[in-house]
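Write out the 3D structure for:
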Amino acid sequence: MTVLVIDGHGGKLGRTLVENIISNFPNVNLMVVGTNSAATTNMMKGGATKAATGENPVVVGCRKADIIVGPLGIAIADSLMGEISPAMANAVASSRGKRVLIPMNLCDTYVAGVTGSSTAIVGDAINQIRRIMEGESHDI
């Protein structure tokens, strides 16, 4: 199973996701794509070995991924302070892969009901990835 993590800005959330995915699923085929080099570098510091930066790697990665993980903004054109192009958002939204998106109230997007800590949200995301890998997730 191939898991693609996409992140922007400084890659802090992406790095946290990478560390959690590697520790929970050590044999997963993990790819990361940063919208900028800082995000990519930070995710690599979290343990990712397959990494790329920019729009085309997002588009190509979304075609190959079974699971796409990242902040909610990766599916919204012009989000993450403009780092997500319409092509990137479309690639995420139209991918055959399952999406596990982390809700965040940033960059002019308010997600109602999001009050939990990022640690709890990342933990929930990891549990959802586990359910998908085990074939138990039919609700997404």
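The domain at 2-133 is CATH 3.40.50 (Rossmann fold).
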